[in-house]
Design goal:
The chain is mainly beta. Helices cover 3% and strands 48% of the residues. The strands form 15 sheets. Strands 46-47-48-49-53 form a 5-stranded mixed β-sheet, with no helix packed on it. A 4-stranded mixed β-sheet has the order 2-10-9-6, with no helix packed on it. It has a 4-stranded mixed β-sheet with strand order 12-20-19-16, with no helix packed on it. The N and C termini lie far apart (99 Å).
Length: 663
């Protein structure tokens, strides 16, 4: 046999006897698609085969649309809302056991739309004045009891000489008489009867609480409709509108007006606000000047972390009077770093701890500056609890205890308030843990919603109220000692909530304005292009801050926003009517929150300053991705995912006499 043939034979034998050829070949068996009705449950028939035989290998499955389609640990899928969804299936064992490392597949799920059951029409007055428009307040309900916004509704009028109705449900009245309006969706109809009466309105009186202000200042208009004798017509349907001319000819004079008479302007210019009821109307003209709150911001110092991702931060004054910081790390080796920041231009590490975790996502310090709590995720033994640390001497921190009970799913965020730690568990609930004796912590209660597929990301506690961020369930206000609802740490009582449509509520922060308004700011977390977690990954986030007016706890109103184009919000801080917010790839942004809030704060010129921390030596070079910001003794401290801990400072505020005073 030739030498070449011998080599080929030996190579073939080696390949046949190689470890790869001896590996069992695994495969996930799952249906390509399933169809469900709303409310239906089904056990998913998915499993792993090994060399063609069914194995007992654990299979995991989950839906990203948990509120619409939920899969539990026993592979039971339940449909809550109609639509098309995907269930991701992941096989157990090593990825290398699967051909080409493909240990996952997906199932397409169609949840059928139920038939329409009812068209509700509400709020139609007993009489309508001729010549005034009336919106038809209607809701389409299907047989599953769900509100449907995907259904085409058509409208017809029995007598269009008296009233007509647009394709959007706006009724326009012309003369006195009775008329029937019918709304129809699929095979369901609802007919209402309208009584159109003579219009007595001859005059509108319009007043406002001023006629000039800065962009972003909120005006309050009051309109009265009167008849020929000067009597007020209390039930007159008054509508507000505005027209503006911007000082800058390249911009439109945008703003926002509410139908209760509130108005705010985005651009400097001249605006005319009109109140109308049928043919009667009245107008007032306003002069709007620039808000002029911009200030310079400069970088002061940096504590570099360039070998791993940095997560959250907390700054505090130590018991020795010096200033310190703690930062976590993400997707790495379970370290938390302690820093001396007494001189913000000279930030340096003084100690660290390492725990069994891949991620130390959150770090918090007690009110007296003696205790630190850090969270753990990705522990080797799956005991992803929290760690309690003595930081009386931040140069020699000591681990006092660990708390792992009920925390196997990971602790993503924590908060310390009055000798209790509020700690997330498995992304579904939070526990209140007593740490009066920090060496012997114990749980005293938990708070969890009972909605389908509920989840939670964060909890913040202030004045005895816990503000939790519950993704699609939105902002939850829970009494844990405030007394407003009789709650305590051992008896948390939910008393208010607000959920906004995109379902991405990631953080919540309370803000009690000097105007008397009580706001809660809810922040999104969205990664429209995915999240590249490795070294060298450059990311772009999405989402914004939703400012919700909770002054009336039973009727919270989303009233304003903070949005930065092509970037997404993360964590933030409010102090002295100023918002400091980390906007991921758009750096740290600083906003003026003074006065009443309404509309788009950035368009209004309320952005004071911004700083983007580019670092050529970062874990990913020149890829800013700011995580959180905190004001401490006049300096803005913030952490960046790719470059560590930073400090910056705003120039002093402009003298008040150069500004038009806020209303």
């Amino acid at each position: 046999m030739s030498t070449m043939k011998q080599l080929l034979k030996l190579t073939l034998v080696a390949l046949l006897l190689s470890p790869l050829s001896l590996l069992a070949q695994k495969k996930i068996v799952a249906p390509e698609s399933i169809t469900l009705d709303v409310g239906q449950k089904m056990k998913l028939d998915i499993y792993v085969t090994e060399d063609g035989k069914k194995s007992d290998e654990t299979v995991r499955a989950f839906s990203r649309a948990r509120r619409s389609l939920y899969v539990d640990a026993d592979l039971m899928v339940e449909a809550f809302k109609p639509g098309e969804y995907e269930v991701l299936v992941i096989g157990g064992g090593s990825v290398e056991d699967y051909p080409e490392g493909n240990n996952r597949t997906s199932i397409k799920v169609l949840v059928k739309y139920p038939a329409i059951a009812e068209i509700k029409v509400e709020g139609i007055p007993n009489k309508i004045y001729a010549g005034t428009p009336v919106p038809l307040n209607y809701t389409v309900i299907d047989e599953a009891g769900l509100t449907r916004e995907d259904v085409q509704v058509t409208f017809t009028s029995k007598n269009e000489n008296i009233a007509s109705v647009s394709s959007y449900g706006i009724i326009n009245t012309f003369k006195e008489g009775r008329v029937s309006i019918t709304a129809k969706a699929e095979d369901i109809e609802n007919t209402i009867n309208l009584n159109v009466v003579k219009n007595p309105i001859t005059k509108i009186e319009l007043t406002a609480d001023g006629d000039q202000a800065r962009t972003g200042d909120v005006f309050h208009f009051t309109a009265k409709a009167m008849d020929a004798k000067g009597n007020v017509i209390a039930d007159a349907p008054i509508t507000y509108s505005f027209y503006g001319v911007s000082d800058d000819v390249s911009q439109s004079a945008s703003g926002l007006i509410k139908q209760d008479g509130r108005f705010v302007a985005d651009e400097a210019g001249i605006y005319t606000v009109t109140a109308a009821a049928g043919v009667a109307s009245a107008s007032k003209t306003l002069k709007i000047v620039p808000r002029d709150v911009q200030r310079k911001i400069e970088m002061v110092g940096q504590g570099s972390v360039n070998d791993k991702h940095t997560s959250d931060l907390w700054i505090w004054e130590g018991v020795d009077g010096r200033d310190y910081a703690v930062t976590g790390t993400w997707g790495a080796d379970g370290k938390a770093y302690f820093w001396d920041v007494t001189d913000p231009a000279n930030i340096y590490k003084i100690d660290s701890v390492q725990v069994d975790a891949r991620t130390v996502n959150d770090v918090k310090i007690s009110e007296d500056g003696t205790i630190c709590v850090i969270s753990r995720e990705g522990a080797s033994n799956r005991k992803n609890g929290l760690v309690i640390i003595d930081v009386k001497n931040p140069r020699d921190v000591q681990i006092l205890s660990r708390f792992d009970e009920n925390m196997t799913g990971g602790v993503h965020n924590v908060f310390i308030y009055q000798d209790h730690v509020y700690a997330l568990s498995a992304g579904q609930k939070y526990y209140a843990i007593n740490i009066e004796d920090p060496k012997n912590p114990y749980a005293v209660s938990k708070f969890e919603l009972d909605t389908p597929g509920h989840a939670i990301h964060d909890v913040w506690v202030e004045d005895g109220i816990a503000y939790s961020s519950n993704w699609a369930d939105g902002i939850q206000l829970v009494d844990v000692g405030n007394g407003i609802a009789g709650g305590s740490p051992s008896n948390p009582v939910q008393f208010a909530s607000y959920a906004y449509p995109n379902g991405a509520n990631h953080a919540s922060f309370p803000y009690r304005s000097k105007t008397g308004k009580f706001y809660v700011i809810g922040g999104d977390e969205i990664f429209p292009y995915g999240l590249n977690t490795g070294k060298g990954g450059v990311n772009m986030a999405g989402g914004y801050l939703h400012i919700v007016d909770f002054t009336d706890l039973e009727n919270p109103e989303e009233i304003a926003r903070v949005e930065i184009p092509y970037a997404g919000s993360h964590n933030y801080w409010i102090e002295d009517d100023i918002l400091y917010v980390a906007f991921y790839n758009a750096g740290v942004r600083v906003f003026d929150l003074s006065g009443e809030l309404m509309g788009d704060l950035r368009k209004q010129g309320r952005e004071i300053a911004w700083f983007i921390p580019n670092d050529g030596n970062g874990y990913t070079a020149n890829a800013p991705f700011t995580w959180g910001a905190q004001l401490h003794k006049g300096h803005i401290f913030f952490s960046d995912w790719n470059s560590g801990l930073w400090s910056a400072k705003l120039e002093p505020e402009k003298p008040k006499e150069t500004q038009i005073q806020s209303k």
